[in-house]
Design goal:
heterodimer; A: mainly alpha; 76% helix; B: alpha+beta; 6-stranded mixed sheet; 5-stranded mixed sheet; 33% helix; globular
Chain lengths: 343, 529
């Protein structure tokens, strides 16, 4: 029995999507590999140091496979990656996969908390700004957003530490935990909030939360700035639509018009906004991680790059790229689910 | 489960409002904030980085040590007596009987022989220090041997200054490892290298409890240490890269020592009565290198002129603060044969006259390669300004540290601004680096700074060899002093500064000893009052 046209269309769409994702991943792999190989830096230096003998230098160069043609190096790398092996980090001496499993949860925890703050405050702020367009509330919210966009995160992080940690003592300092709580909870997910809750270790959970508040607040502010501006813009577009005029003419309360009808219709594009914001925090929180001594994936990749630890750079970049693509994919799927017109 | 979920949610909501939950440091525990992401291994046979050397210095013993308070003196380590025979090649070390490893096993000459043989056999980067003594993979088993349980014999390949041999043996690579532990963890013939990268098997005042790359390391005191138990029980060193963050944590009492404060951070707490500073001059020297492949930089008058266009005092004061002192010779202050002559001062008029005598009164243009980090770019800008006074156009080429180094090693630079630390606390280490270049060809095996700048002076090569072989310590020191004075006048290197390591701590904590190099920094005396 022939498949129905709708199933065929669905299968074709899934195939196209899979091909697109695979092609993107291959492009990412190739681009990062080539960038890593063409930078004017000698990766052997990272292994043997500046003063090694010519013999040691040559031996390590061969061990790293750098004596092989570029295409051979790439092919070997692709084969390893397909086996889930990103090689071993020069700096940590661990398999890169293990390093990523250790550093990524810290960033996920931070970015998730920041996004929650951004969404919880940014969407209402954007709605309010749109509803009060041109009035002081709108100006104030736009100003907050503008500052969030303009101020360097590095500076804001230091100022937040100075005020809330050093001066007022309201927040805990840098790091994920007080140092004496480190390693007191067995890692299950790598997310300390979750692991400490599973272990029932409330002192560690409390310490983790206290340490998370400040960096998440700083990153959340940037997320808030982006989300509130986008929400405002999307809401203004909706508030000019005829169905809003109709709703008001029918006597619906302003609250219902705003929060149910207008916001309801902006939720679809907002999903993409939030997903992009979250993805950018996953890959771009390196400065916050530096200021707050937060052992995340951004610091790991940056430190590896500065030390020409190419396996770590390639593995880290690839994982962040996959996360970025996955989030985009997820937002696309949500988009289709929320908006029947796009199916 | 429901109870746990409720507790989780309650804490989630209440923790940020209730202020930080702080686990205070016990009085017997020291916490330091420091950038430690340079550590790639803690195996003494492999350690070549600043932070790693400091760990090894505290966890392992060596046969002999340089005195942290006077780097020109050798003092007893695991060996209580040492001597050299009349041939000048056979060195004998008598080991102390009361030394034990952290496992409780006694330290024997067999362990010492194994450790040195292992370092040469593994042939990691620091093995060059031991190769200096003529030890190779092929001969090390015969030339480093345990005569009996408590006597170690080392035979060098040629006659060399005994002080050079002893100073080489104070380097981290010559640390004594417990043979049984290393071999018990051997994998695929690595002599325990993989395991020792993240564990310890030493007899020093501490043992390594934990090292998490780019996160922290933790040392526990060895209470049975032959030199006496440390004044503290645990040392936590946390990776904190940002200097401003270190300062804030110090002020809040979350760390006892801030180790990487820059000029701005030091200035900010200089007047704080609750904070004290430990300072020590270390062996890292800052220098300008002039590539002799550049036709302008090859002229002696230009080399001399450039040395008069550096505002040494201005840079030291305005850019470096208390983090470096002016030092114009290749041997670090405090080393055998070091000199404190300051023959060059910022003098643009004299520089102009020198350039005019070279037929370059109109000046010329060159580039300077420099790390794109503070204070290097600020220093390069100050040099640019000074050079302009004499008509030299200096274009700054900033780059990542490794990128700049790659270019430097390939001899593709004009001028290089960087720093250099000694491999071992003997004057030959830097003399070899900056004055010796016996093969100036591109295929040379030794790529020292002298080679990297395509500079070779046969007379100076001979002077370096003579100083290396001189067995009388006094005469040897005199040879290095003469060598440096000649080097200052002719070599295409302008030495400018020497590092002052500064550690800030509360007034209630003291006892950290800053030695002549990172491997000589000692935690054992740190106590809280």
């Amino acid at each position: 029995m022939p498949a129905s046209p709708s199933i065929e269309r669905g299968a074709m769409a899934a195939l196209r999507l899979a091909a697109s994702v695979l092609l993107t991943l291959f492009g990412l792999l190739l681009a990062t590999f080539l960038i890593a190989r063409v930078v004017p830096i000698d990766p052997v230096l990272a292994v043997v140091g500046d003063r090694a003998s010519a013999d040691t230098y040559q031996r390590v160069r061969v061990e790293l496979g750098l004596d092989q043609p570029l295409y051979v190096q790439f092919w070997r790398y692709v084969v390893l990656v397909l086996h889930g092996d990103f090689g071993r980090s020069v700096l940590t001496r661990n398999p890169v996969v293990e390093d990523i499993a250790r550093f990524l949860p810290a960033t996920v925890e931070l970015a998730t908390a920041a996004t929650l703050i951004g969404v919880a405050l940014g969407i209402p702020a954007g709605v309010l700004a749109a509803a009060r367009q041109g009035r002081w509330a709108d100006h104030a919210i736009r100003l907050v957003g503008l500052v969030g966009y303009s101020v360097p995160v590095f500076w804001l992080g230091l100022m937040a530490l100075l005020l809330f940690y050093a001066e007022l003592g309201w927040a805990a300092g840098p790091g994920r935990l007080d140092i004496f709580y480190e390693d007191t909870v067995a890692p299950v997910t790598g997310l300390i909030l979750v692991d400490s809750a599973i272990a029932g270790n409330w002192a560690v959970l409390r310490s983790a939360l206290a340490h998370l508040v400040l960096p998440a607040g700083v990153l959340g502010y940037f997320s808030l700035a982006y989300i509130s501006r986008m929400t405002r813009s999307l809401m203004l577009e909706q508030l000019g639509q005829e169905y809003i005029v109709t709703a008001r003419a029918k006597g619906l309360s302003e609250r219902r018009v705003l929060w149910r009808h207008a916001l309801g219709n902006t939720l679809v594009p907002l999903v993409t906004v939030v997903a992009l914001s979250y993805a950018s925090l996953l890959e771009g929180s390196v400065l916050t991680e530096t200021v707050f001594a937060w052992p995340g994936i951004g610091s790991y990749i940056t430190g590896s790059l500065l030390n020409i630890d190419m396996n770590a750079v390639l593995g880290g970049t690839l994982v962040v790229g996959v996360l970025f693509i996955s989030l985009n994919l997820l937002s696309d799927l949500l988009y289709r689910w929320l908006d029947p017109r796009t199916r | 489960m429901v109870h746990r979920c409720a507790a989780f949610i309650f804490l989630l909501l209440s923790a940020p409002l209730g202020g930080p939950a702080r686990a205070a440091a016990p009085p017997d525990t020291v916490v330091m904030g420091k950038g430690i992401d340079d550590i790639v291994s803690l195996d003494p046979a492999e350690v070549y980085e600043v932070s790693g050397a400091e760990v090894v210095g505290n966890v392992y013993d060596r046969l002999v040590e340089d005195d942290p308070r006077d780097a020109t003196q050798i003092r007893a380590g695991l060996a209580t007596a040492w001597s050299v025979d009349s041939s000048g090649r056979v060195f004998t070390f008598r080991l102390r009987r009361d030394a034990r490893f952290a496992t409780g096993a006694p330290v024997t000459a067999g362990d010492a022989a194994f450790s040195l043989q292992r370092a040469v056999a593994l042939d990691k980067a620091p093995a060059l220090v031991l190769r200096q003594l003529g030890l190779t993979k092929d001969n090390v088993a015969a030339r480093v041997r345990a005569a009996d349980e408590g006597t170690l014999v080392i035979e060098t390949s040629r006659v060399m200054a005994s002080s050079l041999v002893y100073f080489c043996l104070t380097a981290p690579v010559a640390s004594i490892v417990e043979r049984g532990v290393a071999l018990a963890h051997e994998q695929e013939g690595d002599l325990g290298n993989g395991w020792l990268a993240g564990h310890s098997a030493g007899s020093g005042p501490y043992r390594l409890r934990l090292w998490r790359p780019a996160e922290r390391y933790v040392l526990d005191a060895n209470l049975d240490y032959w030199g006496g138990a440390p004044a503290n029980r645990h040392v936590f060193v946390r990776h904190i890269k940002e200097a401003a963050t270190q300062r804030l944590m110090l002020l809040r009492g979350d760390i006892d020592y801030a180790r990487d404060l820059d000029k701005d951070q030091l200035d900010a707490i200089a007047g704080n009565p609750a904070i004290r500073f430990d300072r020590g001059v270390q062996s890292l020297v800052t220098y300008l290198a002039l590539n002799q492949r550049n036709p302008y930089l090859r002229r002696p008058e230009v080399i001399a002129a450039i040395k008069h266009l550096i505002d040494y005092d201005g840079i030291a004061h305005a850019i470096l603060g208390g983090t470096r002192i002016v030092h114009e010779a290749f041997e670090p202050q405090g080393y055998l044969g070091a000199i404190d002559d300051l023959p060059f001062r910022y003098d643009p008029e004299r520089a102009k006259a020198l350039l005019a005598s070279a037929g370059l009164a109109e000046g010329f243009a060159v580039t300077i390669d420099v790390r794109n980090a503070s204070p290097w770019t600020e220093m390069a800008q100050a040099l640019q300004s000074g050079f302009a006074e004499a008509g030299i156009t200096l274009t700054i080429v900033p780059g990542d540290g490794k990128q700049v180094l790659t270019k430097y090693r390939a001899r593709h630079h004009d001028i290089f601004l960087g720093e250099w630390g000694t491999d071992y606390p003997d004057p030959h280490s830097n003399a070899e680096a900056f004055a010796l270049n016996e093969d100036n060809s591109d295929a040379a095996r030794k790529k020292t700074p002298a080679w990297r700048n395509a500079w070779s002076d046969p007379a100076m090569n001979a002077q370096v060899a003579a100083a290396m072989a001189e067995r009388d310590v006094g005469r040897r020191a005199a040879l290095y002093r003469a060598l440096q004075r000649a080097h200052q006048q002719t070599a295409p290197f302008a030495f400018m500064f020497q590092l002052v390591e500064t550690a800030a701590h509360p007034a209630t904590v003291d006892g950290f000893l800053i030695g002549a190099g990172p491997a000589e920094n000692r935690y054992a005396g740190i106590a809280k009052h």
